[in-house]
């Protein structure tokens, strides 16, 4: 109850902050999707799928049929009135209505443990879809409150890593519409991939009538909550915006409709053809609507957690997790949305958050504390070096490039070693599978 009250209070604060800038906040945007075309229908149905883990098979079919039926009614109403769908997707309203209906049934028609379980399921689904709106509001706040960005610092430091965004950007551009659109689907539907892994982890909830203590959705949501706070400390817009033409570059490549120009303020039109020169960096002013959402790369952080949690699944899930990680890293660099330095910070950030949640579940043993302290120290060291040592890093790439990679690898190794000690690895295809996570 206290967690729900805290989450609602946080949403109210973000709503007030967004209203301060004359725009709707997460509560208004979510309520709007009860009637208007949703921004992401896939995400709403993914949230409904999470809620379905607490339902019986009969109840799942009823819930899905109700969601599809409501969507068909909305589609017919839009066709009859000629309103159409100018923004968003033509489906998803039904999923949101059913999610709210499950919460209402839990309160009005269920009692005891059944009510608690159904409320947990509905809350999990609603948290996923509301988290998206919360993230959008956070991005708005970063663009309004951080008029200057630190892209020249990160771009200079990125010379130590060989300017991977410029390299991968040229490769993705060369693949044309096919390569772009495949990566665009992967990049845009990351939450749906997370739900696929989470559904495997939560597959026994309906039978056991309780949730596992730790699962992917917890880490996914906590990363989305904490990450934007770092954006406020280290505002960066990304190479395609700071050193390129923004969305205009991909409008000429994609098979999808051209995106409207952003009218942003690039330093120069260099990405992805020419790497920026090595000079002393300084903050630059930027427009008031492009999100400062690069440091760390949360797409990398989320893809890393998907990969980590897919390791306990069957072979197909493990391969899917690996594919999503590689494709997401390729997209973040190839689209020019992130620098290589962002990706290293994102991976360290993800493993630190994941380690903290696992350590909390184990009562903060000494091994868990060491893992979290190690990850936090490396993450802070990366940010400090990007801000205060970029020129030295660019002029000595043979030294600082390996050091950056080794620092990241040390966190990866420490995480794997610690978790393996906590949860001994077994073959997922064995007749004797690993013990399931503790249930609550």
Structure in words:
- This protein has 440 residues and is mainly alpha-helical.
- The chain has two domains: 1-145, no CATH class; 148-432.
- It contains 19 helices and two strands.
- It has helices spanning 2-20, 26-32, 41-52, 57-81, 93-109, 112-145, 151-157, 164-188, 190-201, 205-208, 216-233, 239-242, 247-251, 298-310, 315-334, 340-361, 366-388, 390-395, 397-422; strands at 148-149, 284-285.
- Strands 1-2 form a two-stranded antiparallel ribbon.
- It is globular.
The gyration radius over C-alpha positions equals 22 Å
Q: Indicate the percent of residues in helices.
A: 55-70%
- Average pLDDT: 87
- Shape, per Cα inertia axes: globular
Percent of residues in beta strands? under 5%
pLDDT < 50 stretches: 254-262, 427-440
Find the count of extended strands (DSSP E, 2+ residues): 2
**Helices and strands: which structural class?**
mainly alpha
Q: Element order, helices and strands?
A: HHHHHHEHHHHHHHEHHHHHH
For the biggest sheet, the summary is: 2 strands, antiparallel
Span from first to last CA?
Answer: 16 Å
Number of domains: 2
Query: How many separate helices?
Result: 19
Strand arrangement, major sheet: 1-2
């Amino acid at each position: 109850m206290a967690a729900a009250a805290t989450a609602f209070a946080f949403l109210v604060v973000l709503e007030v902050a967004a209203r301060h800038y004359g725009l709707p906040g997460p509560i208004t945007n979510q309520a709007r999707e009860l009637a208007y075309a949703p921004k992401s229908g896939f995400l709403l149905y993914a949230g409904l799928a999470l809620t379905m883990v607490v339902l019986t098979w009969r109840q799942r079919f009823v819930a899905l049929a109700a969601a599809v039926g409501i969507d068909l009614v909305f589609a017919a109403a839009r066709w009859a009135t000629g309103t159409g769908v100018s923004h968003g997707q033509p489906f998803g309203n039904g999923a949101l209505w059913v999610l709210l209906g499950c919460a209402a049934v839990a309160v009005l028609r269920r009692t005891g443990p059944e009510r608690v379980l159904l409320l947990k399921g509905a809350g999990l689904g609603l948290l996923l879809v509301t988290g998206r709106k919360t993230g959008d509001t956070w991005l708005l706040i970063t663009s309004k409150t951080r008029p200057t960005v630190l892209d020249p610092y990160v771009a200079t430091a990125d010379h130590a890593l060989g300017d991977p965004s410029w390299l991968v950007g040229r490769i993705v551009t060369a693949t044309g519409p096919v390569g772009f659109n495949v990566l665009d689907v992967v990049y845009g539907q990351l939450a749906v991939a997370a739900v696929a892994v989470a559904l495997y982890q939560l597959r026994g909830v309906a039978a056991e009538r309780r949730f596992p203590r730790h699962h992917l959705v917890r880490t996914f949501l906590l990363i989305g909550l904490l990450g934007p706070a770092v954006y406020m400390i280290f505002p960066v817009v990304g190479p395609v915006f700071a050193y390129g033409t923004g969305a205009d570059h991909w409008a000429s490549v994609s098979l999808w409709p051209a995106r409207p120009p952003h009218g942003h303020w690039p330093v120069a039109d260099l990405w992805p053809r020419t790497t920026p020169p090595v000079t002393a960096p300084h903050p630059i002013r930027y427009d008031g609507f492009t999100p400062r959402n690069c440091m760390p790369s949360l797409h990398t952080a989320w893809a890393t957690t998907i990969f980590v949690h897919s390791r306990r699944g069957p072979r197909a899930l493990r391969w899917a997790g690996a594919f999503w990680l590689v494709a997401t890293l390729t997209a973040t660099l190839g689209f020019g949305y992130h620098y290589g330095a962002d990706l290293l910070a994102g991976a360290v950030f993800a493993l630190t958050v994941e380690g903290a949640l696992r350590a909390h579940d184990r009562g903060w043993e000494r091994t868990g504390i060491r893992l979290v302290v190690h990850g936090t120290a490396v993450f802070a060291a990366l940010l400090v070096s990007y801000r205060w040592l970029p020129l030295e890093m660019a002029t000595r790439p043979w030294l600082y490039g390996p050091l950056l990679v080794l620092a990241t690898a040390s966190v990866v190794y420490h995480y794997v070693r610690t978790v393996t000690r906590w949860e001994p690895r077994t073959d997922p295809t064995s007749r004797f599978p690993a013990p399931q996570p503790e249930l609550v």
